[in-house]
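re: ur question from earlier - yeah i can do the single chain one, its not a big deal. heres the input i used so u can compare w yours
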Amino acid sequence: MAKTVRIKAAKIPKSKKKVQFKVEVKGELNITSFIACQRVDQRLFLYVGNLLQSGDPDLLVGERFLLWDVPVFYALPDVGILGAVGHVLVDAQTGDLKLNDSTPFEEMKINAKRLYQQTTSQTAA
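and the output i got, formated as tokens:
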């Protein structure tokens, strides 16, 4: 049975480097966490809107894959980040977005709308 290990963002190098993990998985991080976030932000801007943004990703390590798990947040200009609305997986070797295994964009829109409604109802009260 294949296992996956999640490595928190704070423990991952910020530049393109070869990495070795004690779980005996070796791979090359061709896509840094920064580049993964840029790719997610670009896709969000094109297909969802400009009020969603990526956060610091975790690295998922499996027997045959290295994936960035990039959280997506909803933010308002004068308020800041309201909360998480989903996540997007990015292949750390190719840079491909794994949209079939990520939160669908329509679900992110629904989650963002819910956060907006919660915020506006709290400020109106």
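Residues 5-124 form one domain. not sure if urs matches, ping me
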